[in-house]
Amino acid sequence: MAKSDSPIGSSVKDHIDRERAGGAEYRDTQDRLRPFEEIARMVIMRRAQLGLTQQELAERMSTTKSVISRIESGQHRSGTDTLRRLAEALDGHAVIGFEFDSSPVSASDLVRL
Question: Which of 1, 14, 54, 69 could bond to 10 as cystine, CB 3.0-4.6 Å?
């Protein structure tokens, strides 16, 4: 990274915008990870609402703290069974659906896992 490309002194959004403009590989990776980052934000927020540590959430899921850490990093895929168990451990339900032709998704298009 050249000195003029340094993220220091710029906002995170400005840095990401520069990176996205500079390379298709960066854009592709960011686009691929976006859903997992969104899930990570939801998990972190819900875990905080419930006052749980990563260890306590892991125990509710019968898994390890490192699994929770990977999920919350937003950098790893999680399978549907893991998402179901995670949602239940967070006192919720995992829901999956499909969207076609930019039509809005209705409740009848969603399946509870």
Answer: 14
- pLDDT tens readout for residues 60-113: 999 999 999 999 999 888 999 999 999 999 999 999 888 787 777 777 777 887
Residue 1 lies in a domain: no
Q: Say what the pTM is.
A: 0.70
Rounded Cα gap, residues 82 and 53, in angstroms: 18
Work out the number of other CB atoms within 10 angstroms of the CB of residue 58.
19
C-alpha 39, offset from chain centre: 3
Q: Is residue 2, in this structure, part of any structural domain at all?
A: no
CA–CA distance, 76 with 82 (Å, rounded to integer): 12
Widest pairwise Cα distance in the chain: 52
Do residues 68 and 58 lie in contact, with contact meaning Cβ atoms separated by under 8 Å? yes
Task: For residue 5, tell me if it sits in a domain.
Answer: no
Do the beta carbons of residue 110 and residue 97 sit within 8 Å?
yes
Match 């999920």 to its residue by tokens. 71
